[in-house]
Amino acid sequence: MSISLADVQRAGFPMGGEPLIALDLVDTKMLVTDPPQDLIPDEATASAWWRVQSPRLPAGPPPDLADTRRLRTAIRDLFDAHLAGRTPAADSLAAVNTAAAAVPTSLGLIAAGDGYREETRWHTEHGGNAALAATARGAIELLADETRLTRLRRCASPTCSMLFLAETTRRQWCTPNICGNRARVARHYRRAHQPPFTN
Fold it and tell me: What pLDDT digit, counting tens, does each position of 174-199 carry?
């Protein structure tokens, strides 16, 4: 199941609807502001954010704020390290692996009409949070897929820190209706206010 940018924006978050929940999660902290702006500053906002993501998550309670922030920081470090060509912090890798391992999964077969379908079961009975585990797992799958990882981008706007997966090589803005629109308006302004060419 997927969610759209419009779904996320209706819930009050400027960026989201990326193919990976991990990307939506890291984009809940705006790093280019001083100080950085946390878009999930409290438990209520964090719960609202996880509710928006729920159609693409295993069933279960939303993670608490501290665990959400810990995983967000770790995933962001791994993604930023890739984009900057640096080695991530060892504790970032450990935090993502720990979140993913906290809720093991198994594949089951379910009768469906005239046939069968597969179903992934998230084993929360041993502790851990399925939403965090699924989010960490998505980050792991992206980072381990060299072809798909080449599509990870940072918004081209110098006033934005959002990350996204580019569906096309032409995509350079995190959202068409925020950063993309600002770039179009600025380009139009520059053209409209250029001094006339004279010989």
Answer: 876 667 565 455 554 456 666 666 66
Q: Are 133 and 75 in contact (CB under 8 A)?
A: no
Give me the sign of the Cα torsion angle 47, 45, 79, 102: negative
Residues counted in the chain: 199
Q: pLDDT tens digit string along 101-155?
A: 999 999 999 999 899 999 999 999 888 999 999 999 999 999 999 999 999 999 9
Q: Which CATH superfamily is domain 5-192 in?
A: Jann2411-like domain (1.10.3300.10)
- Indicate the domain borders of the chain: 5-192
Containing 193, the helix (H) or strand (E) segment is none
Q: Residue 188's pLDDT is what?
A: 45
* Cis amide linkage into residue 35, ω under 30° from 0: yes
Query: Between the CA of residue 10 and those of 54, 104, 176, what are the distances in Å?
Result: 15, 33, 15
Cα(7)–Cα(177) distance, integer angstroms: 14
Digit-coded pLDDT (tens) for 45-99: 999 999 999 999 999 999 999 999 999 999 999 999 999 999 999 999 999 999 9
3-state secondary structure 114-172: CEEEEEEEECHHHCCCHHHHHHHHHHHHHHHCHHHHCCEEECCCCCCCCEEECCCCCCC
